[in-house]
Amino acid sequence: MKKIIILILLTSFTSFAQKRELGKVTVEELSEKVCPIDSSAPAAVLFDIGEVRFEYLDGRGFVMKTRVRAKIKIYKKEGYDWANKAVRYYIGGNTKERLNFKDAVTYNLVEGKIEKTKLKSDGEFDEKINKFWGRKKIAMPNVKEGSIVEFEYTLESESIGVLEDWEFQSSIPVLYSQFKTVIPEYYVYKPLMRGFLAPKYETSSTTKIINTTSKERSEGNVTTTGFSNEQFSYAETTSVYTIENVPALKDESFVNNIKNYTCSIEHELNSIQYPNQPIKNLSSDWENVVKAIYENDSFGPELNKTGYFEEDLKAVLAGTTSPEEKIAAIFNFVKSRMNWNDYHGYSCDVGVRKAYQDKVGNAAEINLMMTSMFRFAGFEANPVLLSTRGNGISLFPSRTAFDYVISGVELNGKVILFDATNKYALPNILPIRDLNWFGRLIRKDGSSIQIGLMPQFNSKEVVNIMGQINAEGQVKGKVRSQYFDYNAFSYRDRNSGINNESIVERIEKRNQGLEVSDYDMQNRTDLSKPIVENYAFSTEKNIEIIGDKMYISPFLFFTLEENPFKQETREYPVDFVFPNQDKYLISLTVPEGYVVETLPQPKAVGLPDDLANFKYNVSNNGTQLQLIYSLDINSAIITPEYYEALKSFFKEVVNKQTEKIVLKKA
User: Residue 172 and residue 73: Cα distance in Å, rounded?
Assistant: First the structure.
């Protein structure tokens, strides 16, 4: 007997009252000149309300529907961009999403009356980001200072593994933000809060009743059809998160990813249990998370495929003897053969075999392939899952905590990290996107350990300047800069494919009045050596003549003129990306007819726990001024508890760098 549900009627006993509605714009709101909680704000979110609920559809099962309504006030021209909205949606695979905007309207106050301008079709755009994601955008019409814009969009998805993240905080003030989830008892989601603010939380449970009409066929000598009515119910949990008068989130200097500190909530599916079926746990701790990832067909099994590269790899390893030589040969082979297609992720798309044949792959295909080669050559090599800087810090056990995978080789009691997606990467010199606190190394038995991703050594930049000062205050000379380790990697990556002429233009553009000539760069492609820059320069900006005295900024155009840390307090860690050392050796010839009147005093300053230090000393031997300076940042991440000390530290740095040497006519 076959049973077909042909009619579904859903009834909910209770619902939450709406606190804000679209279309309720007032003259008072349009007349408002400044945001009531931040008079400097270029725009403000008057309300932002999101709701996620699940609907049971015949033949499709539960479908997740997200509805978002927003109302935004524009105060200044700088806030015009807030009249536009872009939302991405999934278009890859079999679970495509459907996204639609509606009720998009701009309101203005014209001669005391409310003028309403609806969004037309020419203001809505649908674009393909890549083969996985599309994006719909709206550009609101008739936007002016004082306008209010509002819109609604809905997103329907059959993929219920992860709810869309909800951000209660933004770079402009948010007067009211609410996020509601209505979830059937069959699904248990784990809510994860970020940021320093705590929304108000309310929850309630209701019963959902489903009435169905079923058609039953009996087959025999005569086929008959009968109808019957059935009813079943399930519990539904409603959770509401609300917050009001949220200040604008200020993006400060040296912040990894402001998303890490934004007041927001995310939900990941933790378990599923349908009626009369056992519970299916999806993730609860890191071990379960990595086990689920490792056992996925597009991850673990790809590591076991070796036939496609074996003959090539044997040729690559021919003649190598030491472990270090073999590792370097494999790493360089993968880097030279493979080309990254710019896709992140820890799952293979086309698979390692096809990627190898095509010489193009995503991060997973390239780095899992390399891991497999390391293993084939006899090394203890394992994939390392991580979250890139753009994805945020992986603080909580979650399958979506990671969006990338690299390779780790255990040798002599240490783990050496490799990422072959970048041609300029080296062992333990990873692309900057990878440097995001920590990752997880997964061994063959499915166990995992946390691996630190942040470099523990200082990358150096050494600058030598030889200059001559003339009586008119002009300085001519030569600069020799050397970049080591991560500084060398960043330099190569930043200037990839750029010729020397363009680099000179950049240097001169950063330093108005500077003239650069005879530019030369060494070791652009020899990764075993530091990058070396040599050029001649001429400048008149760094010396001031007043009467019979000459005031010299000895750092010339390398001077740090203002403290990068201006906020009174800081809630976020300071992220320098990697530890580094800046060292300057400067020699300036005193112009004829001048003698030294005053020299800056030597200085040495350090932060607590040796987090940073700098040393400054300038001397004079008659015709030559000699400056020796070093600044060491010994930790890539400095926590907020040290912020006040760090701010004072850099104040001292700026004071010394801007301090003048005074010459006077003899």
Answer: 10
E-only strand ranges, 260-388: 264-272, 280-281, 339-340, 360-361, 380-386
Kindly list the strands in the beta sheet with 124-128, ordered across the sheet, starting from the edge strand earlier in the chain. Answer: 84-90, 133-139, 124-128
The pLDDT tens digits of the residues spanning 345-388 come to 999 999 999 999 999 999 999 999 999 999 999 999 999 999 99
Strands of 61-97 (E only): list them.
61-74, 84-90
Instruction: Return all residues near 629 (Cβ < 8 A) that are at least 6 apart.
Output: 555, 582, 583, 584, 586, 614, 615, 616, 617, 656, 657
pTM over 0.70: yes
Structure tokens at 549: 């005295």
| Residues contacting residue 601 through CB under 8 Å, at least 6 positions apart | none
Could you tell me the two tokens for 272? 């599923």
Alpha carbon of 158 to those of 91, 229, 438, 511, 601: distances in Å?
A: 12, 27, 32, 54, 69
Cβ contacts of 463 within 8 Å, gap of 6 or more: 479, 480, 481, 482, 558, 582, 583, 584, 585, 586
Nearest one of 141, 18, 19, 167 to 74, comparing CA atoms: 141
Is the pLDDT higher at 215 or at 138? 138
| Identity of residue 610 | D
Strand order through the sheet with 475-483 = 515-522, 531-539, 475-483, 459-469, 580-589, 624-633, 612-620, 603-606
Arithmetic mean of pLDDT over the chain: 92
Q: What are phi and psi of 178, to 5 degrees?
A: -140, 140
Phi/psi for 80 (5° steps) reads -60, -35
Residue 620's φ and ψ, nearest 5 degrees, are -140, 130
Residue 35 is classified by DSSP as B
The DSSP symbol for 558 reads G
